[in-house]
Amino acid sequence: MTEKLFGKMPDGTPVEEYTLRDGELSCGVITYGGALRSLVLPDRAGKPVDILLGFDTLEDYQRQDKYIGALIGRYANRIGGSRFVLEGQEYRLAANESPNHLHGGVTGFDKQVWGVESALENTLTLTLQSPDGQEGYPGNLEVTVTYTLGDSALSIDYRAVSDRTTLCNLTNHAYWNLSGHNSGDIREQQFRLPNSRYTPVDAGAIPTGTIDPVEGTPMDLRQLQALGKREYDHNWAIDNWDGTLRLAAQAFSPGTGIDMEVLTTLPGIQFYTGNFLDGCPKGKGGAVYPRHGAFCLETQYYPNSPNIPDFPSAVLPAGEVWRSKTVYRFGKRDHHD
Ligand code: BGC
Question: Is 17 a catalytic residue?
Answer without folding.
Answer: no
